[in-house]
Structure prediction request, 195 residues.
Amino acid sequence: MTDISGLRFIAIFPDIPIDGKFILRDLPGSGKRIDVLCRSLAACFDWSSSLEIRSKLEFMVSLSHSILLRFKAPTDATLRGETWWATIVRDSLRNTPPDFVTVEERGLEELLQILQKEESNIFVLEEEGRPLAAISKTPSASPYSFMLGNHRGFDEGTSKIIQKLDIQRVSLGQRSYLGSHCVAAVISHFERIKK
Ligand SMILES: C[S@@+](CC[C@H](N)C(=O)[O-])C[C@H]1O[C@@H](n2cnc3c(N)ncnc32)[C@H](O)[C@@H]1O
Prediction:
C-alpha cells in the first residue's frame, strides 16, 4: 500500500430524510435512496480486505447540505449489511450515534473550506476527470479525500460548490459505476500501490 495517512470519502445525499424517519423495509422509497449510501458504507468498511487500510478509512456523508455524519471503521467483526448500516444512520440522526460515528451541524461548503485549509489531496469523483492513477503516485502526508454523488450524481448546489472551490475531478473511466463500486475501486487502488 502507498504511504498515505488516510483515505476519506465524502458522499453527498441531499434528499435522505434528516429526521431519521425512514422504514427499514423500504430504504429506497422511504429513505430517498439511503440504500445507495448504505451500500457505499458497506463497500468502505466491510468489503476492504486489509486491516491496515481499514484503520485509515473515514467516510463522511453530507445530508441536506446541513448535517454531516463522520464514520470510522466499526471495531466489532460481526457481519453487516445494508439494513444494519441504515439503523446506524437512523440512530445517529436521532441523537444516539454509536462510538464510531459523529454528527455535526455543518454544511458541505464549510466542510470543504476547512479541509482545503489543512489538506491538499481533495478530489471529486467524476467520469470526466483525470485518471486516478495520475494523482496518487507519490507518498503523501495529507489524507486523500474523494467526493462522490448519489444515484443521480451531484445536485446543482454541490456542483456550484465544486466549481467555486475549484476541486479537481478524478475519474475511474468513462463508464458510470455505482457509488459503492467507486468506493471499492479507490480503496483497492490504494491497496495495490507499492511504495
Ligand atoms: C451512480 S453514479 C451517479 C450517476 C451517474 N453520474 C449517471 O448519471 O449515470 C454515483 C457517483 O459515482 C461516481 N462515479 C460513477 N462513475 C464514475 C467514474 N467512472 N469515475 C469517477 N467517478 C464515478 C460519481 O461521483 C457519481 O456521482
User: Anything to note?
Assistant: The chain has a mean pLDDT of 92. The pocket of S-adenosylmethionine is lined by residues 125-127, 148-149, 151-154, 171-173, 175-179, 182 (CB under 6 Å). The chain has one domain: 7-192. The first helix runs from residue 27 to 30.
